[in-house]
Amino acid sequence: MAKKRPSLSVRHVFWFGSKLVIFASTVICVFALLKFLSQSKLQSSIALSRRSRSLGDHFQGPPKIAFLFLARRNLPLDFLWGSFFQNADVANFSIYVHSEPGLVFDRSTTRSAFFYGRQLRKSIQVAWGESSMIAAERLLFEAALEDPANQRFVLLSESCVPLYNFSHIYNYVMSSPRSFVDSFLDVKEDRYNSKMSPIIPKEKWRKGSQWITLVRRHAEVVVDDELIFSVFKRFCKRRPPVEDSKGKQNLKLQKQHNCIPDEHYVQTLLAMSDLEDELERRALTYTLWNKSMTKMERKGWHPITFSYANAGPPQIKKIKDINHVYYETEYRTEWCRNNSTFAPCFLFARKFSRGAAMRLLSEGVVGPFDAAALLNTHL
Ligand SMILES: *[C@@H]1O[C@H](CO)[C@@H](O)[C@H](O)[C@H]1NC(C)=O
Ligand SMILES: *[C@@H]1O[C@H](CO)[C@@H](O)[C@H](O)[C@H]1NC(C)=O
Ligand SMILES: *[C@@H]1O[C@H](CO)[C@@H](O)[C@H](O)[C@H]1NC(C)=O
Ligand SMILES: *[C@@H]1O[C@H](CO)[C@@H](O)[C@H](O)[C@H]1NC(C)=O
Ligand SMILES: *[C@@H]1O[C@H](CO)[C@@H](O)[C@H](O)[C@H]1NC(C)=O
């Protein structure tokens, strides 16, 4: 009896153990199968979206410009853009808006029917100056790539205005096979974080304005990138501003590396993809910087907002007459071109107040001014 008991319990343990092994391997198999299925589903959905996108690479038919608006909330200058699109062919453009999640553009939130329902389905909460901003940009490009007719992609802020009528802008942008990306070497500032190396080598680090215009192929590069984006998410972070309430903690916070993702991401990605010779390395959107600050404040240069008073014909003409841009850090003068012909540099400008935009409208900048139509927009 005494002999049997251990042998029984050994058998029992063996029986239990083998059941456990079978159970565990079944669980592992099911798990692996599920993972495989979800991965292949993900991969096939990626492949599907790539396939539908690549249809656009050989698109026949009138090409469209996709206007991509990155907004905090509403579009305060919708009345001016509405008038701009009024003078366009609906077959020649499309509109996408990334705004607060849940905000729907309809009669109650915008004065221009062109924006109705044009918000992205999956917009995210954006913290200005952080990587969620470039995530939002990527969502805009991704949504716009679904339409194979979209061949140029213009990224705009809520305070950007057009400086010409639609057909002028359309011809200018379409006649160039290149993207317009303000991009230069960033030698004075120390935004590059050495932890990005070796994935992003220092010599590929670029800076430039966020407000870019891309050809379809380059928009695809931005949407398909996971690697550079993930490095930016980890190592390119904005240093928080000094807050008195934080006292001593400020010192620690101010020692953090400071980087503004939206001023570096696309520029660096395109440099890393060896696509710089397919760019006009300058912006289409004019920004007037306030340089009247002291040297100490210089790091925080701010764009000047145009008001009704300084958006008159002489000021607008001055912007339109600019035909070159000087890049100090590279000693490079960029003579502005539209394809191979010399052309004025800027098609858009920021930042414009409502009053300034109203003035453009009444001066007929985007098309013939119709006061009666304006009254109907209930400004
Ligand atoms: C657009 O503006 C150009 C001048 O820049 C003018 O020649 C053209 O007639 C205008 N087109 C429309 C449709 O208003
Ligand atoms: C619309 O696109 C067609 C084809 O590209 C072009 O001929 C036409 O001038 C465009 N219309 C406007 C208003 O830009
Ligand atoms: C841009 O180039 C096209 C042809 O290459 C030309 O028809 C158009 O007038 C140009 N636009 C400007 C603003 O120079
Ligand atoms: C750009 O210019 C080149 C050379 O002048 C010309 O062959 C080409 O057709 C132009 N592209 C467009 C889109 O107008
Ligand atoms: C430029 O910046 C200075 C200093 O911050 C400020 O006093 C001034 O009002 C700004 N100018 C404009 C036109 O915004």
TrEMBL record:
Keywords: Glycoprotein, Glycosyltransferase, Membrane, Transferase, Transmembrane, Transmembrane helix. InterPro entries: BC10-like, Glyco_trans_14. It is found in: Membrane. The chain crosses the membrane at residues 12-34. One of its GO terms (molecular function) is glycosyltransferase activity. Its main location: membrane. One of its GO terms (cellular component) is membrane. This is Core-2/I-branching beta-1,6-N-acetylglucosaminyltransferase family protein. It comes from Tetracentron sinense.
